[in-house]
Design goal:
- This protein has helices at residues 13-22, 36-46, 84-92, 98-108, 124-136, 154-169; strands at 2-7, 29-34, 56-58, 76-82, 112-117, 139-140.
- It has 187 residues and is α/β, with parallel strands linked by helices.
- It has one domain (2-169): Flavin prenyltransferase-like (Rossmann fold), CATH 3.40.50.1950.
- It has a six-stranded parallel sheet with strand order 3-2-1-4-5-6, sandwiched between helices.
- Strand 1, helix 1 and strand 2 (29-34) form a beta-alpha-beta unit.
- The N and C termini lie far apart (40 Å).
């Protein structure tokens, strides 16, 4: 698959790092774009991003990346984590940087755009932006980790969100911990 990974200034750098860990660079063409605030948050939360070999980095200020045009075929774009400000700018159709332009391209070309907001609580503007983006074809997948698999550390907890994103792309994570038996019915 040809994928674009992006991150903006919300907390949750661990999700991006775990996504990079689970994607096999040999099996996928991975392009990465980080906003300046994402770089700052990454530094504060995990020190530095460990990039697998073959990941192609692009400046947020450049519009020369192939995925900034609808004529380049890409399979999916993931913005993880995404700030609510980024979601609002995508919902408004602004394209003043590479992340926003690429998101606009993925929406207009009806390609898979997965946005993983980490911020909480939401206000009414956030909720309306989520509706707007969903109606435009984006998949909004909040970074809400699950506990079914009994995660033993933060990496395993973050992986529960990463696996959901990979599922949306049709990529099977080989080490994904799934239910071993059906859960009890909700009461």
């Amino acid at each position: 698959m040809r994928l674009v990974l992006a991150a903006t200034g919300a907390s949750g750098s661990i999700y991006l790092q775990r996504m990079l860990h689970h994607l096999e660079p040999g099996g996928h063409e991975i392009h990465l774009v980080l906003s300046p605030y994402a770089k700052q948050v990454i530094h504060e939360e995990i020190g530095e991003l460990k990039l697998p070999p073959g990941v192609i980095e692009h400046s947020e200020k450049s519009m020369n990346a192939p995925f900034a045009s609808g004529s380049a075929l890409f399979d999916g774009m993931i913005i993880m984590p995404s700030s609510m400000g980024t979601m609002g700018r995508i919902a408004a159709g602004t394209s003043e940087n590479l992340i926003l332009r690429a998101a606009d391209v993925f929406l207009k070309e009806r390609r898979k755009l997965i946005i993983v907001p980490r911020e909480t609580p939401w206000n009414l503007i956030h909720a309306r932006n989520v509706v707007t983006l969903t109606e435009a074809g984006a998949i909004i997948l909040p970074a809400s980790p699950s506990f079914y698999s009994h995660p033993k550390n933060f990496d395993e907890l973050a992986d529960t969100v990463v696996w959901r994103v990979l599922d949306q792309l049709g990529i099977h994570a080989p080490n994904a911990c799934r239910w071993k038996e059906d859960p009890s019915p909700a009461e």
